[in-house]
């Protein structure tokens, strides 16, 4: 009997979690898919906009074929070619459209990040995911048909709509899988969201290889392929149970909540879960919701929200998304003969160390891992920048740069990658938590947008781009020393109260 129950629990839970993290997988796919076929898409942009595939060739051809005299600037003995001037303008235009193609995804995420929780509470977790998938399908169709129309407009629009979808699910998926998971498995199952994201990045890099889909004939299929997990999820969601917490706490439908729990647990005895949810509902009813403005005006919330924002700013401005978005270009600059394969290697390392961080974070502690990760990234950024600067003089510096990039990603996933998301939840109790998570997600997406938009333009200032990481460990250390929080204060107090059978009020963390 026990074995049967275990199988039922595992089967139902696996189905629900797998279905939910398909969104996370697509999130990662959308992040990484634009990177692999970068040169192919830029070439297509030039074709659509009537710009030569090689500005240098255009200038030379103009000089050879034109019979017009080159104009000169007053006081400047050097002749200025109109072709050269036009080529420079065209190159800037292409760079702008490419940067928008990358950053429009983050713009959509910024806008939608405020509405994920609201949509989940209004429609329920399952229906909210179904509605969000409409955005995913629209974005995928626009990008999939981009080869047939004005590709730059369709790709920018499609990625913006896909960003809206990812902004919604970045709140919906962790919420749903956290609410359906048993208490003993909640941490491990919650980490699957981040693991699915980095797996999506890795898969996008593999299928983006030139001999698979990242070529001139099939690149539009590569971009539109994100519709596949969306369609699969739509089908599977009809077989997934609604969140019992949503049914019981939000809708006060105990019978439906018990039915959902029985499917998830594989047992008729769900008294423990119902008791836990009853306490949570009483807590929520006794504590008023806190607005975003109150987080900054109320002294008891101001300091923890500043720490939360600092964590997310440190994560984004560490330079990691510069590597995710432009890793192929960076490896090419570093002199790697096959930069696409090096990019895939970064994705593989990213995935492995995300899995490793799940085990490390509970043993080493949040603060320690975050500081170790940021300090390691700082050292790697120095070697990466020095390697790129000295590449022309010392060819072997390409290996230094490549090794630094791999280690940079390792240190990121040890701490700065996963920690900011659940640290914010641990800083706040039920009342202020939704607003805190919303503003933290918005700040994360805003940093993502700034990096995506500016990184390509500042590629010539590679040292500066990556050495931005230098200031964040110091700032973070300053805030944490000022706050002096204990490791996981909310979690420890909750565990202590459970042992004593006492319900504690919100701990005074700061």
TrEMBL record:
Matching entries from InterPro entries are given as: Glc_transpt_2, GLUT, MFS_dom, MFS_sugar_transport-like, MFS_trans_sf, Sugar/inositol_transpt, Sugar_transporter_CS
Family stated for the protein in its record: Belongs to the major facilitator superfamily. Sugar transporter (TC 2.A.1.1) family. Glucose transporter subfamily.
Cite the PROSITE patterns for this sequence: MFS, SUGAR_TRANSPORT_1, SUGAR_TRANSPORT_2
**What gene name does this entry carry?**
SLC2A2
CDD domains reported in the protein's UniProt record: MFS_GLUT_Class1 (cd17431)
Q: Does the keyword Cell wall biogenesis/degradation apply?
A: no
Function text: Facilitative hexose transporter that mediates the transport of glucose, fructose and galactose. Likely mediates the bidirectional transfer of glucose across the plasma membrane of hepatocytes and is responsible for uptake of glucose by the beta cells; may comprise part of the glucose-sensing mechanism of the beta cell. May also participate with the Na(+)/glucose cotransporter in the transcellular transport of glucose in the small intestine and kidney. Also able to mediate the transport of dehydroascorbate.
Q: What is the lineage of its organism?
A: Eukaryota, Metazoa, Chordata, Craniata, Vertebrata
Organism, by scientific name, is: Capra hircus (Goat)
Protein's UniProt keywords contain Transport = yes
Report domain Major facilitator superfamily (MFS) profile positions: 16-488
Q: Where are the transmembrane segments?
A: 96-119, 126-146, 152-177, 189-212, 218-240, 305-328, 340-361, 368-390
The topology of this chain with respect to the membrane is:
Multi-pass membrane protein
Q: What is this protein called?
A: Solute carrier family 2, facilitated glucose transporter member 2
A molecular function annotated in GO for this UniProt entry is:
galactose transmembrane transporter activity
């Amino acid at each position: 009997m026990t074995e049967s129950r275990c199988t039922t629990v595992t089967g139902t839970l696996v189905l629900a979690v797998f279905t939910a993290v398909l969104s996370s997988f697509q999130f990662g796919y959308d992040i990484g898919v634009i990177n692999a076929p970068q040169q192919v898409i830029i070439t297509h942009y030039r074709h659509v906009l009537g710009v030569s595939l090689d500005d240098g060739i255009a200038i030379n051809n103009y000089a050879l074929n034109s019979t017009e005299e080159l104009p000169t600037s007053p006081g400047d003995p050097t002749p200025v070619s109109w072709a050269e001037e036009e080529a420079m303008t065209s190159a800037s235009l292409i760079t702008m459209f490419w940067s928008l193609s990358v950053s429009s995804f983050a713009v959509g995420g910024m806008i939608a990040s405020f509405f994920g929780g609201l949509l989940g509470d209004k429609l329920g977790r399952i229906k909210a995911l179904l509605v969000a998938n409409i955005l995913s399908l629209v974005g995928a169709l626009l990008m999939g048909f981009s080869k047939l129309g004005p590709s730059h407009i369709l790709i920018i629009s499609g990625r913006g709509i896909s960003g809206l979808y990812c902004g919604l699910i970045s709140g919906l998926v962790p919420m749903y899988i956290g609410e359906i998971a048993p208490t003993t498995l909640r941490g491990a199952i919650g980490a699957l969201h981040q693991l699915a994201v980095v797996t999506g990045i890795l898969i996008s890099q593999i299928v983006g290889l030139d001999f698979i889909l990242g070529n001139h004939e099939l690149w539009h299929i590569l971009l539109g392929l994100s519709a596949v997990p969306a369609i699969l999820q739509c089908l599977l969601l009809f077989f997934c149970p609604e969140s019992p917490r949503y049914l019981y706490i939000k809708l006060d439908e105990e019978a439906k909540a018990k039915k959902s729990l029985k499917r998830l647990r594989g047992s008729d005895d769900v008294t423990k879960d119902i008791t836990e949810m009853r306490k949570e509902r009483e807590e929520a009813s006794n504590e008023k919701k806190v607005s975003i403005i109150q987080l900054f005006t109320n002294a008891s919330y101001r300091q923890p929200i500043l720490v939360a924002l600092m964590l997310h700013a440190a994560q984004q401005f560490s330079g990691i998304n510069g590597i995710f978005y432009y890793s192929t270009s960076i490896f090419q600059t570093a002199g790697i003969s096959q930069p696409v394969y090096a990019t895939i290697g970064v994705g593989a390392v990213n995935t492995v160390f995300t899995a490793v961080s799940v085990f490390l974070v509970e043993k080493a502690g949040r603060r320690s891992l975050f500081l170790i990760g940021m300090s390691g990234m700082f050292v790697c950024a120095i070697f990466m920048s020095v390697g790129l600067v000295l590449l022309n003089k010392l060819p072997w510096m390409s290996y230094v740069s490549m090794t630094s990039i791999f280690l940079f990603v390792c240190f990121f996933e040890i701490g700065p990658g996963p920690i900011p998301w659940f640290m914010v939840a641990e800083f706040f109790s039920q009342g202020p938590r939704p607003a805190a998570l919303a503003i933290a997600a918005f700040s994360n997406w805003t940093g993502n947008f700034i990096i995506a938009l500016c990184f390509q333009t500042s590629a010539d200032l590679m040292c500066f781009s990556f050495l931005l990481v230098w200031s964040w460990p110091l700032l973070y250390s300053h805030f944490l020393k000022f706050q002096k929080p204990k490791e996981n204060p909310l979690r420890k107090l909750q565990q202590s109260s459970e042992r004593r059978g006492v319900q504690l009020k919100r701990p005074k963390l700061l």
